[in-house]
Amino acid sequence: MKVMLIEDDEGKAKAITSHLKKKGIPSSDVIRAKNMTDFAGSLGADIGLFIIDFKLPSVDNGIASQNGKAILEAIIKAGKSNSLLLAISSYPNDFPELREFYESRGCILADYSNKKGWQATLDSILIQLKRNVNFDFLVFCALQEERNPYVALLGGRQVTRADIDCLDVSIGTRKGTVVLMPNMGLVNAAVTAALCIDRFKPAVVGMSGICGGFSNRAAMGQLFVSSMAYEYQSGKWTTDGFKHEPYQVPTDPLLLARLRALVNKDNFIDELESGFRGGKRPTEQHKPDLGIFTSGSAVIADKQYLEQIQIIHRKVSALDMEVFAIQRAAELSPARPKCICAKTVVDLCDSEKDDDLHAYGSYISAKFMVKAITDSFS
């Protein structure tokens, strides 16, 4: 998000810009408006904080007048009522008259002559701004090894926002972050995804990583893209045993058509494997496919229990601990972002579990996610 500094005084603007830079806001993220014309011309930008002066000229070299109220009204009418507002003025004598108008619209007043005061107020607002940053896309990973490939593929910068472990990355012109969940499981995934979707307002969310597979419908090292997800744990215990009542979340049909076209590209698995240097590969290549995921909070390593889960849906392909929660959080969000979940089968949910394909599975699912996000914005 950008900061708009609405200020005609060069010395004052320099002091505020310098303080912003000290607090990690680069000059490229500060939009300077020296008059009302500049302000109107830049109002369409993605601005998270407006720093306002009470008095501003209407045009270049004009006479400064009380345009602060007009600026506030324009910000609100432009649909930017969620932006943070701070008025730093050299005219504190005007505060009693203007305070009610400004503060009723969420704008904090600060006296420029009180240097420590306005800097402390600005620091507090910047902390909130960093928490409120918006992203074009979010990707969730349950394990560190699932997030590691994004560093190799995209670089990025690790940031902690309100105890959320983020790896900020860019895909083309789109900005996003790869969130490392605090722990595995449905509850952690649901809470983390719901919080992040609400806070960062992404257009696309996704999840990549590794999963288990059903031996008659999946192969070791095969990538599956979720066409639908359900929770195998939901239902009711009775004297006759457990009666399943699986809640289902489908992937959006239009998005699914694009994902199907992507996985059906010629030699797509070669494209995904390109650049992998992390260790063991599967003994045989398997074409990526769309599949149904079932999710629960427990790791499954028992064939008999797996068979009980498998009978819920005759076409289920993959089993994991988070996909249903991610898709459900996206579905329930007022923003309804597109949701893309893709994981690689690294075991067949039996007692012969090992870590041999974890690096491979994490890599090709991350590589797919980058391509799918790119495609979704094209």
Note down, in words, how this protein is organized.
One of its GO terms (biological process) is nucleoside metabolic process. Pfam families: PNP_UDP_1. This is Nucleoside phosphorylase. GO terms for molecular function: adenosylhomocysteine nucleosidase activity; methylthioadenosine nucleosidase activity. By secondary structure, the protein is of the alpha/beta class. The protein is built from twelve helices and 19 strands. The strands form four sheets. A five-stranded parallel sheet has the order 2-1-3-6-7, sandwiched between helices. Strands 12-18-17-13-19 form a five-stranded mixed beta barrel, surrounded by four helices. A two-stranded antiparallel ribbon has the order 4-5. The longest helix has 20 residues.
**How many strands in all?**
19
Q: What's the number of structural domains?
A: 2
- What is the CATH class designation of the largest domain? Alpha Beta
**Distance N terminus to C terminus?**
22 Å
**How is the largest sheet built, in terms of strand order?**
2-1-3-6-7
Which residues form runs of ≥5 with pLDDT under 50? none
Helix content: 25-40%
The main pleated sheet reads as: 5 strands, parallel
Task: State the CATH architecture of the largest domain.
Answer: 3-Layer(aba) Sandwich
Percentage of β-strand residues:
25-35%
Using the CA coordinates, give the radius of gyration.
Answer: 26 Å
Q: What name does the CATH topology of the largest domain carry? A: Rossmann fold
So what's the overall shape?
Answer: elongated
| Mean pLDDT across residues | 89
Instruction: Give the helix tally.
Output: 12
